[in-house]
Structures are given as C-alpha cells and as structure tokens.
Amino acid sequence: MTAASRKHPIVVWMTSVPQNVPAELARYYIYWKIFYLLAAIGHLFTLSMFWQTGVYFMTLFNVFSVAIFAAALWLLRKGYYRLAFWGAITELTLHGIAATVCVGYLYSFQNYTFLVVILLFIQPFYQLRVSIIMTGVLLASAAMVMYFSVNNPPYYVIPDEYANMLAVMPMMTWPIYALVMVLPFVRASARAEKELAAAYGESERLLLNILPAPIADRLKATTGMIADDHEKVAILFADIVGFTEMSGRLPPSELVKLLNSVFNAIDELAVKFGVEKIKTIGDAYMMVAGLPIPDADPDETIARLALELSTTVSAFKDPVSGNPVRMRIGINSGSVVAGVIGNRKFAYDLWGDAVNIAARMEATGEAGRVQVTDEFASALKDRFKFEPRGEVDVKGKGKMQTSFLVGHA
C-alpha cells in the first residue's frame, strides 16, 4: 500500500491538481482551493453568528459570501483562475467594510486587509508594482472605514452573551487563514532552496572534476582567457602498451570497463600525491606536479608517483591473455603556460616545449618503464636510481640523451 493510497480522500482532493492546470499554476491552484474552501466554511459559521446576534444585514451578506466562495471553487475547477481570484478579493474587501460599519471595530473585521494583501502579493497574474498600487488603494479604503467606525456608533449592538465570543473568534481564525495562505509558499521556497543547493553542489562537483578549484573560481569571476606562466613543473604522460591490439580482441564494453578501472586507480594516485590530472586521450593519461598549486619539488613528486604508477597498473590483467597491463611512461620538467582558452567545453591544459618533450619521452619509451630526460635525471640523481639509455631520436628535437627511472636511491 503506497503512501498516497493511505491518505484521507479529503487530503487527496485538497492536494490534487487536475492535469489541465498549467505547471506554473499548480502550486497556486492548491493554495486557492484550500483557501476558498476554508473561506466558505468560515463565512458559513459567521452567517450563523450574525443570525443569532440579530445582525440580519450581515446574515444575508454572508449568504452571498458563501455562494461567492463556492462559485470560486467551481470557477477554479473550470480554469477561470483570474475570475475566481478577483471574486475572492472583492468579497473579502466588501465583507470587511460592511461588517466593520455594522458592528464596529471591536470585532476585528477591519483586519480583512491582511488576507487581501496576501492574496495580492502571492499571485501569478500581475507584476509587483501592480500589487503595490492595489495594496495602497486597499489600505486607504481600510483607513477610511476605520475612521468612520471610530467616529460613529455601529448600526447593530452585539448582545453581551455573544460579544466576547465574537471578539475572540477573529484572533483564532485570521492566523489560520494567513497560515493556510502563506505556508504552502514557505514550504515551496524551502524545498526550492534545498533543491537549488543540491543542484549547485552537484554542478560544483562536476566543475571540480573538470577544472582545478582555483581555476574554476577564477573562471566563475571572469569571462576572459586564463593563461598563467609556471616556471617549474613536472609533466607525466602514460600510455597503455598494446591497447590497439587489445581493442581488437575485447568487446567494446569490456575494453572500456578495463580502461575505466585503470584510470580510476591512476586518479587515486593523483590525489594521493597531490598532482593535477590534466586529461585523458584514448588510452593515454596526462598529469602535472607543481600547478595550479605550487610544489616545492615537483620533480620528486612526479618521480615517486611514476614508480608507484607502474606497480599499480601492472596489477591489472588483460582479460583475454591474462598478461599484466603495462604502460609506457614519459616525464620531463620545465616551464609551461597553463590555463583555459575558448568559451565552450572548457578544459584546463598546458602548453610549452617542456610538455612536448614529456610527450616524446612517453612515445619513444619502452613498455613498463619510465623514460626521463637527462636534465630530469641529473636533478634527482641523489634520491633516485636511473639507468642511462643513451641517445634517442626525438621528433622536433633530434638526438637527446635519456634515462630510465628504475627506483629510489
């Protein structure tokens, strides 16, 4: 049994919205329906009170009042929302004026202004300035009625046995009416704020999965290009060996599943060592140490990560051959420009000769090994072990001396 089926039929009726009601009016529809119903019941009770106290003019007036709110419910159901709205405002205003003139101001009927003001401001039909103007007219009429009532005796005198009850009754009914009118929108506002906060949190999470936090903050504050010079960073490229052949043996779903598992493991290493993932291209992974948050020794950070990366990736197996997954890894360090360019599908990227050389170190490397430039090896020779490789023909650079990073010193 669902929660909806356990609700009382009256609750279901009060909170249900016909399918032909526009979505932007659904909330108002429920609010109007409940208010018109309570107003009809309230005026029926007031009719009885006036009958018993001998205020026959207001007794007759309340007969029409009950009919007006019953008609408002019917108009609401038929889709005449604006007509029902104005019927309610007109009745509340005239009823408040007539009752105040008939029995005086001691019974708070002049407080009709509270309900009418709420109706004027919580509505989808008119702009704010229209509501303000109509409220001004309403308050002016109420002031005149109150002035008249203070300076003139009422047309009817309420018997003593009913006077106290009639004086207390508005103190109980007006807050209920006001609560019914305001509560749905207070709750809707709270719900909207909660949903907005959740949506904002999700958008922030997605944004921070694309861009570094400092860059995301700057991007939200500017529409211009972001390009920063960094004098010393260390760049790492890694590529799965034999991925092309593997893609021919594995179903696409299995291939992507394996790639996702490998890259998730590398993502965890990036977080562990505090380096920035820049991007993945196919089966290649690029990361950098030393930006956007500076690193005191980006070379050592990226070297330690590279050694652990080789071990981590080798724990994964080719589903067909059963052989360990291996990566070619290339590292270089130097100055770069980092930032975001363009105005669609933002991506944080690096540019510079140091980046190109790091990519060449990976491309000319060997399976399961970490190839670095001699300059990089010289900077860390006291802390890590390197194996000289000799000269390597690097596209765009010619012959370069390189080494393999093999472990800690």
Q: Hey, roughly how much beta strand do the residues contain?
A: 15-25%
| Series of H and E elements | HHHHHHHHHEHHEEHEEHEHEE
- The number of distinct structural domains comes to 2
What level of helicity do the residues show?
A: 55-70%
Outline type: rod-shaped
Low-confidence stretches: none
- What's the total count of β strands? 8
SS-derived structural category: alpha+beta
How many helices? The count is 14
Biggest sheet architecture: 8 strands, mixed
Report how far apart the termini are.
69 Å
Mean pLDDT score: 85
Report the C-alpha radius of gyration, rounded.
38 Å
Word description of this protein:
The chain has 409 residues and is α+β, with helices and mostly antiparallel strands. It has two domains: 3-203, no CATH class; 213-408, Alpha-Beta Plaits. It is built from 14 helices and eight strands. The chain has helices spanning 3-6, 9-15, 26-53, 56-78, 81-103, 112-121, 128-151, 160-210, 213-221, 243-249, 252-273, 298-314, 353-363, 374-379, and strands at residues 226-240, 276-281, 284-289, 327-340, 349-351, 370-373, 384-394, 398-408. Strands 1, 2, 3, 4, 5, 6, 7 and 8 form an eight-stranded mixed β-sheet that branches. A hairpin with a 2-residue loop joins strand 2 and strand 3. Helix 3 (26-53) packs antiparallel against helix 4 (56-78) and helix 3 runs antiparallel to helix 8. The longest helix is centred in the middle third of the chain and has 51 residues, at 160-210. The mean pLDDT is 85.
